[in-house]
Amino acid sequence: MVNGIVIDLDPIDIKILSLLQKDSTLPTADIAERVGLSQSPCWRRIKRFRDEGLIRKEVCLLDPKIVGLGVTVFATVTLLRHSEENARQFEAIVARRPEIMECYTVTGDRDYLLRIVAKDIEAYDRMITDQFLHLSIIQSVSSRFALRSLKYTTELPL
Amino acid sequence: MVNGIVIDLDPIDIKILSLLQKDSTLPTADIAERVGLSQSPCWRRIKRFRDEGLIRKEVCLLDPKIVGLGVTVFATVTLLRHSEENARQFEAIVARRPEIMECYTVTGDRDYLLRIVAKDIEAYDRMITDQFLHLSIIQSVSSRFALRSLKYTTELPL
DNA sequence: CCAATAATAGAAATAACATTCCCCAAAGCT
DNA sequence: AGCTTTGGGGAATGTTATTTCTATTATTGG
Questions:
Q1: Less Cβ crowding at N or C end of chain A, within 10 Å?
Q2: Above 60 in pLDDT, residue B156?
């Protein structure tokens, strides 16, 4: 352990995690075989990852197209005055709206960067108008629409 | 089915998918109970989702901090001349580099928007320099560093 | 309106898998 | 060398997924 948070991983750990990042349904026995361990020590490592929170969760990833979510938008938002209270109000909206899938504060002249998904452009526009523009705390929202998604992965580079 | 791709989901389907987007380890029996079905029909619906590709995959989500990936960067990239060949070369790099977790072409004056994760700023700089800047096809790379991640979810709004 | 048929739900049996327990070997320490 | 700690192997156990079969509910043609 280098500092309080980071965990040291040996090459076998990294192999296990790489496999699980691609497919969490792999039976422990298969993983064990592929990384050169037998079932129980392999299972113990995975259990440790879960207990330590290194594996945050296991989820199903859905296809946005098939559920009718064809539009991805990147919005940069600037607050009118960046007071504590305004930030709190904005961040509460972010937490509440399921269309907002990612939100970061970033360097540069804008305050927030959001990734938002919606059924279509109208639905996106409605969401932005209802949630943000009628609010007095927002100075500007600038939207860039994704024309094509070349890559989207949840696999961290280990 | 509205068009060739989108699948109609009834309220029970949506409940099932919502649960599985949060936690794919839930036993079918639990899901069944929560949505008001018994085990087998619930299992059959889930199987159908998988067969149809609506559930793309099931994965483990890791904690970037704990594996030592503290830096998230949004890079906008413009190619020198946007020829077929240059685009192909750029997109091949995107596909190959695991640090690049998302990549989109977007509206506006830049060509590509990337989300990149790295151990630290030096590692990010090294990656950008090695992969992009020494290449003759890139006009400019503009990087915005994430200061704080307020939200990151893989749950689509159903 | 009724019977025939297809679609969907439920119950029970089986197979696959995760989880635990106990034992063993190697590496580090006194 | 003897002791302790760490990590692996194998088998028993419990849980869950999957399959098969049966019952119920819609749907359609007469």
A1: N
A2: yes
